Prior knowledge:
Blueprint: H1 11-27, H2 43-62, H3 73-113, H4 117-129, H5 132-145, H6 150-155, H7 170-178, H8 196-217
Amino acid sequence: MNNCPYLQKYQLPSFLLALLVIVTIAVLPEIRTIGNMQSPISMSVIIQIMMLAFGAIILFATKTDVKSIPQSVVFKSGMTACVAIFGIAWMADTFFKTAMPEFKAAITYIVEDYPWTFALATILVCMSVNSQTATAKIIIPIAVAIGLPGPILIGLMPATYFYFFFPVYPSDVATMNFDITGTTRIGKWYFNHSFMLPGIISVTTACCVGLTMAKLVL
């Protein structure tokens, strides 16, 4: 039982309680303001604090063998994905900080004539940084600077989901490890993995629908 913590009696209630606490703190910013602080503590910091705290509570409540945790599939998958993502994100961030002026000029030149190509630029950035949030932070200021209409920008935002291209995201890696049937996997050529086709269809469809709706609004 200790090797399968999700089957323990107290783990699920503790996890749900952690989510409830995080949501409560998120909707009540005053809780995150301590003393004379000018602004509330960032929710990313709050999430880390709560997850670590409740993780410790779960360990004590379920009497889980701490030595068995590094041997678990979830831990191995999570750490592998963590190293992969930080490596790619760090490399991409360094590249884009250096090449941003040229990158911005190239996008501006193309997107002004063909707004739909902004989706391709977003896809390329997302594949590089492997993060929806990081992609949005890079791409949205450029869209605003070149005067891309708001409806078109919103309609093409699904392109920020293209981080599935490289199968290193934590949820992807965890899914492949959880699937005991072996049907969710990375193919022989690395890119022909189980998430590629569904991801391409979903992102393409969402962008086409979003762009069509944006043109109806404009």
